[in-house]
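#help-structures
NK: newbie question, is this the right format to request a structure? protein is Phospholipid-transporting ATPase
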Amino acid sequence: MKQICITSISLEAKNVIKDNILLQIANASQMIKLEKDPHAAFALIIDGKTLAYALEDDMKQQFLGLAVECASVICCRVSPKQKALVTRLVKEGIGKTTLAIGDGANDVGMIQEADIGVGISGVEGMQAVMASDFSIAQFRFLERLLVVHGHWCYKRIAQMVCYSFYKNIAFGLTLFYFEAFTGFSGQSVYDDWYMLLFNVVLTSLPVISLGVFEQDVSSEVCLQFPALYQQGPRNLFFDWYRILGWMGNGLYSSLIIFFLNIIIFYDQAFRAGGQTADMSVLGTTMFTCIIWALNCQIALTMSHFTWIQHFLIWGSISAWYLFLLVYGMVSPTISGNGYRILVEALAPAPIYWLAALLVTVACNLPYMAHISFQRCFNPMDHHIIQEIKFYKKDVEDQHMWSRERSKARQETKIGFTARVDAKIRQLTGKLQRKHTSSELHSA
């Protein structure tokens, strides 16, 4: 790795020093642009005294441009304030998410200035840990924090937020459709208790399990395939395409839930005596379809299941029927039209169960078709790894597994392997030149 040292001239006027630093920065940038070796890497080294000039308003953009072009930047003998200023310059200058890691009190400013602060608990006290977002015991744990937990956390939050959009759109629009269907009379198709329990009990716990326990791949696979981490910086799961897709899915589900139930129950005999369904039966059936469709959708979204996810998803559906049973036993002065609605009206009617099954399948069929098409014709990285692990191809074909692991590791211009590759290229070049010169002498 080639070194670029930016130093300041002592015992000179301030303007002379700044002009000299600007000249060094310009020469260094020109040297990087004229470098012919595509594998060449540069390290920028600057001391605290020089950095004080480089961080001034009329010079910091040129310094940032040079720093971005280098593979590594080393700022030595700098103050805590300068560490924070460098972090702010990078964060605001290139608009990227910054991470700062430190283990002492002099790193507190830098940790607080960065988007993500990581503190190391060690011999220098707990000041850095107290000011950080995450705390680790040793620096080597940073790899697992980013590659494993960073990847999981991004996927969990992105899927949880997108599903929340879908869930509330699918439920809320059915209320709007009913208002339009009844001439905006103000009458609600659902009982007040149904709407109260929707986001509190009946659909909240599966969303929490998605945001806490979801894992598209195991931690071992995340470490073996670090390229999976790039799904976060590339924002593959929380872009506008993904958000609008989930919102469109919610719109489609709301249309299916409302109009399919209206078509089924509009002039169809519901009771044994030939009577059609009243509004309370229609509203309860629609709400049952919502509970089934939304919980089955989140089950299809999850890649990793434990007994906790199963308990919360299917327990939420069971809780809905349990609520109907208990609510129907309460005095009619409290339950109103919901009095014994499950025991006497809904449960004995086959059309109620068939409607819930039909609507649930119809709501989730487009998502199943989309994910099947994507996995077959345009799979993402984690889809391929999931398929390999599911069919145990990593055990049957170790050579293929090793090849895929090596392809998942991007080339870098720094580190031990990069230095070895550079040394090999240097020796190969010397041997080629020596061989060429010997041929010329012999000729």
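mod (FA): yep, format's fine, and the tokens are attached above. The radius of gyration is 31 Å.
NK: thank you!
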